[in-house]
Write a structure and sequence with these properties.
alpha+beta; globular; three-stranded antiparallel sheet; single chain; four-stranded antiparallel sheet; 2 helices
Length: 146
């Protein structure tokens, strides 16, 4: 299955590792919540064994374009991992736009960012015909942390 594919497992592990390195307190909260949920909900299965993020979005494009929004279902104090993939020219499109911070960030294929998508209004810049932009996002839903 897709969740067991070696490349997906590596992407998951990488997103998990950078969360651990750059935001250890959030990682610890996610890890403790994961442990508690699995202990108290016998029928619950985690998507990935090598990851504290319970939710994943695969956007296989070919044109991954989002309009400005905030992910209000995400844990407000939490962090998401976004990995971008594809074959587009990052100097001309695919930029990550962070409206609240007044930033437009080049986001080349193969890049990863950890960011709070629940509190930052964001979108991305369109790419050109013939190019592909894909994304892989991991996050923690607000309702799981109580």
């Amino acid at each position: 299955s897709l969740l067991e594919h070696k490349v997906i497992q590596r992407l998951v592990g990488f997103g998990n590792s950078i969360l651990y390195y750059y935001s250890p307190k959030v990682y610890e909260l996610y890890s403790n919540t994961r442990r508690s949920l699995l202990k108290n909900q016998s029928g619950l299965a985690w998507n990935f064994l090598n990851c504290v993020f319970p939710a994943t979005i695969f956007n296989f494009g070919p044109l991954t374009v989002i309009l400005d929004h905030m992910n209000k279902q995400n844990f407000t104090s939490g962090i998401c991992s976004i990995i971008t993939l594809g074959n587009y020219d990052p100097t001309k499109g695919g930029h990550l736009v962070l409206f609240d911070l007044g930033l437009i960030v080049q986001f080349p294929p193969g890049s990863t960012i950890i960011i709070s998508l629940a509190i930052l209004c964001h979108d991305n810049v369109s790419i050109f015909s013939g190019e592909k932009c894909l994304s892989f996002t991991q996050y923690f839903a607000e309702g799981l942390i109580r």
